[in-house]
Amino acid sequence: MSIDRFILKKLDNCREEHTRANLLELFRIRIEKAQKMERGGKKGYRRRIL
Fold it and tell me: What is the 3 state secondary structure string of 24-46?
């Protein structure tokens, strides 16, 4: 199971507010990281096409 699916499954079952907030923050960070990877990592970085 991927970490993203694991987080979503835990969110679905979690009723404790503080834990839910932490899981949501973790998921938000993972989404931002994936978006940065799609854009090539760092700002101004251009991918070389071989």
Answer: HHHHHHHHHHHHHHHCCCCCCCC
